[in-house]
């Protein structure tokens, strides 16, 4: 068979997806191209291809998350990889084992790539050094959640065609959001202008490449798309917000406020959603909402990430 | 990396390619006893062009246009963990139900048989055709798997170090088949 090398991304793909450092725009666009091909696989009666036969992917969730873990595991299975599933609630972490010992124990079982979710920023970087294998960051603390940003960007690309010069508003608790940080890193790289909007207590001091605003009208005016983040109740407990009604009065995205954005501007939400808190309930079910597209695209994106990180390597080859 | 290949000779001219495709089109319709249930699936890249040509030739003498799909076999290759390179995944689009159809799988060159093996797996994942034929413009020998073509434009004995290049008007600006040496 003749090999058609992927010349669209000249530099080799980085070993891991920890954040977007080391990922060029060409490599990201190549990943989106592969994701489109994976959508075709997902539209088939038999949603499975043999590309990763013989590979073992471990999902290691030190922090609870069902949906992201299921999405990764299904993506790996649809590529025919074997899946090893580890979650902290049922594990020895609760008995005092360190992250490193846990990962090295799993590694002894013959794992080719790790999907890691953890509440502490930087553990994924450490894991790459400990294990010397591809790591996919499925969320580390407030720092990064790159596959979520990829699926958001992919969904926006489907809706808007291109992100060049497009204004994307991110609304809500920016300070504690790894989704906001990863989107702030990714979307400008694809040509978008990003405005992050929320109450002063929930905004970081700065976010490189992103405009910050405490005024929702400023954030939403002429936006091409609006991404709404989940407001976590514990923010109130910590005194960062005076009350829920006050947040809703200032920052809930409603039908009326959405009219500040461009006509038909789509709505995104990474889930899980607090209906009638960050987003007016009926809007979540309206034709403006791309939430279901985001979930479906998450599968295709994760299959593509596994393809780009693993294909061309030998199963259990490097350690 | 291998050295740059050197041109050796032309194996088929534009007229010979045209005649071979016309003959294959007639053989397909004859073998299938008409165009009932007949469809074509071309394998990237030249196989797609050749499948389009076959469909057009059949339309010209039967007045019927058999449906056609395109197939990328990348995700079904048996060497994905060996090549060290990452092939680009290209489009697969089969816009009709394969169930019960007589599918003609089209590729430019039949060599080791590994592409055809991958294509068979990829097709069968998409449905259950009543039968699958394999049509190729050139069969150059050196099979590594028990696979044969049903329709062959030209059998060309080659050595393993030689390269057979199929050019088409649509992809390369001219129709020809050439032999190159590594």
From TrEMBL, chain A:
Which residues does the UniProt record annotate as the domain Aspartate/ornithine carbamoyltransferase Asp/Orn-binding? 164-309
Name the GO terms of the biological process aspect. Answer: 'de novo' pyrimidine nucleobase biosynthetic process; 'de novo' UMP biosynthetic process; amino acid metabolic process
* The keyword Transferase belongs to this UniProt entry's keyword annotation: yes
Q: In which pathway does it act?
A: Pyrimidine metabolism; UMP biosynthesis via de novo pathway; (S)-dihydroorotate from bicarbonate: step 2/3
* The protein's enzyme class: transferase
Record: residues binding L-aspartate? 95, 178, 230
Locate the Aspartate/ornithine carbamoyltransferase carbamoyl-P binding domain: which residues?
15-158
So where does carbamoyl phosphate get bound?
A: 67-68, 117, 145, 148, 271-272
What EC number(s) does its UniProt record assign? Answer: 2.1.3.2
Q: Which GO terms describe its molecular function?
A: amino acid binding; aspartate carbamoyltransferase activity
Q: Name one GO cellular component term.
A: cytosol
| Catalytic reactions of this protein | carbamoyl phosphate + L-aspartate = N-carbamoyl-L-aspartate + phosphate + H(+)
InterPro entries cross-referenced by the UniProt entry: Asp/Orn_carbamoyltranf_P-bd (IPR006132), Asp/Orn_carbamoylTrfase (IPR006130), Asp/Orn_carbamoylTrfase_sf (IPR036901), Asp_carbamoyltransf (IPR002082), Asp_carbamoyltransf_Asp/Orn-bd (IPR006131)
Q: Which UniProt keywords apply?
A: Pyrimidine biosynthesis, Transferase
Which HAMAP family does the UniProt entry name for this protein?
Asp_carb_tr (MF_00001)
Any idea what job this protein has?
A: Catalyzes the condensation of carbamoyl phosphate and aspartate to form carbamoyl aspartate and inorganic phosphate, the committed step in the de novo pyrimidine nucleotide biosynthesis pathway.
Oligomeric state and interaction partners are given as:
Heterododecamer (2C3:3R2) of six catalytic PyrB chains organized as two trimers (C3), and six regulatory PyrI chains organized as three dimers (R2).
Q: Which family does it belong to?
A: Belongs to the aspartate/ornithine carbamoyltransferase superfamily. ATCase family.
This protein's name:
Aspartate carbamoyltransferase
Q: Which organism is it from?
A: Meiothermus granaticius NBRC 107808
Question: Lineage, please?
Answer: Bacteria, Thermotogati, Deinococcota, Deinococci, Thermales
TrEMBL record, chain B:
Keyword annotations for this protein, in alphabetical order, are:
Glycosyltransferase, Repressor, Transcription, Transcription regulation, Transferase
Q: What is its EC number?
A: 2.4.2.9
Record GO biological process: regulation of DNA-templated transcription
Report which reactions are catalysed by this protein: UMP + diphosphate = 5-phospho-alpha-D-ribose 1-diphosphate + uracil
Q: Does the keyword Transcription regulation apply?
A: yes
UniProt motif PRPP-binding: location:
103-115
Q: Which GO terms describe its molecular function?
A: uracil phosphoribosyltransferase activity
- Phosphoribosyltransferase domain location: 10-166
| Family annotation (InterPro entries) | PRTase-like, PRTase_dom, PyrR, PyrR_bifunctional
One Pfam annotation reads Pribosyltran
Origin: domain of life: Bacteria
Q: Does the keyword Repressor apply?
A: yes
Give the protein's biological function.
Also displays a weak uracil phosphoribosyltransferase activity which is not physiologically significant.
UniProt record similarity statement: Belongs to the purine/pyrimidine phosphoribosyltransferase family. PyrR subfamily.
- Report what the protein is called: Bifunctional protein PyrR
State the organism named in the record: Meiothermus granaticius NBRC 107808
């Amino acid at each position: 068979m003749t090999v058609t090398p992927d010349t669209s991304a000249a530099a080799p793909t980085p070993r891991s997806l920890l954040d977007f450092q080391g990922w060029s725009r060409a490599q990201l666009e190549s990943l989106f191209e592969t994701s489109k091909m994976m959508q075709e696989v997902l539209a088939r009666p038999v949603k499975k291809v043999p590309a990763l036969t013989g590979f073992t992917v471990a999902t290691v969730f030190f922090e609870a998350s069902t949906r992201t873990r299921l999405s990764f595991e299904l993506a790996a299975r649809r590529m025919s990889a074997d899946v090893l599933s580890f979650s902290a609630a049922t594990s020895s972490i609760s008995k005092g084992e360190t992250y490193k010992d846990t990962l090295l124990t799993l590694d002894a079982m013959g794992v080719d790539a790790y999907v890691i979710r953890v509440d502490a920023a930087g553990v994924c970087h450490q894991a790459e050094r400990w294990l010397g294998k591809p790591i996919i960051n499925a969320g580390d603390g407030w720092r990064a959640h790159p596959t979520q940003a990829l699926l958001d960007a992919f969904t926006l690309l489907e809706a808007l065609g291109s992100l060049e010069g497009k204004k994307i508003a991110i609304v809500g608790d920016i300070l504690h959001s790894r989704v906001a940080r990863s989107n702030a890193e990714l979307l400008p790289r694809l040509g978008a202008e990003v405005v992050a909007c929320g109450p002063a207590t929930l905004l970081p001091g700065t976010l490189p490449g992103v405009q910050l605003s405490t005024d929702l009208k400023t954030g939403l005016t002429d936006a091409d798309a609006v991404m709404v983040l989940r407001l976590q109740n514990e923010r109130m407990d910590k005194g960062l917000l005076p009350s829920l009604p006050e947040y809703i009065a200032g920052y809930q995205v409603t039908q009326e406020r959405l009219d500040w954005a461009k006509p038909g501007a789509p709505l995104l939400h990474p889930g899980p959603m607090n209906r009638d808190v960050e987003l007016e309930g009926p809007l979540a079910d309206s034709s403006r909402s791309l939430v279901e597209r985001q979930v479906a695209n998450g599968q295709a994106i994760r299959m593509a990430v596994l393809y780009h990180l693993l294909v061309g390597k030998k199963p259990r080859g490097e350690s | 990396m291998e050295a740059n290949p050197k041109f050796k000779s032309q194996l088929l001219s534009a007229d010979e390619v045209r005649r071979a495709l016309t003959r294959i089109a007639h053989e397909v319709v004859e073998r299938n006893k008409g165009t009932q249930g007949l469809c074509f699936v071309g394998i990237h890249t030249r196989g797609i062009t050749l499948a389009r040509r076959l469909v057009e030739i059949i339309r010209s003498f039967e007045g019927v246009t058999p449906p056609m799909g395109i197939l990328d076999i990348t995700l079904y290759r048996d060497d994905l963990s060996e090549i060290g390179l990452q092939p680009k995944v290209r489009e697969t689009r089969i816009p009709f139900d394969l169930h019960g159809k007589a599918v003609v799988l089209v590729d430019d060159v039949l060599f080791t048989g590994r592409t055809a093996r991958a294509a068979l797996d990829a097709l069968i994942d998409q449905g259950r055709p009543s039968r699958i034929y394999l049509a190729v413009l050139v069969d150059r020998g050196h099979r590594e798997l028990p696979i044969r073509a049903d329709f062959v434009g030209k059998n060309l004995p080659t050595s393993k170090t030689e390269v057979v290049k199929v050019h088409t008007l649509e992809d390369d600006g001219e129709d020809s088949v050439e032999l190159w040496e590594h």
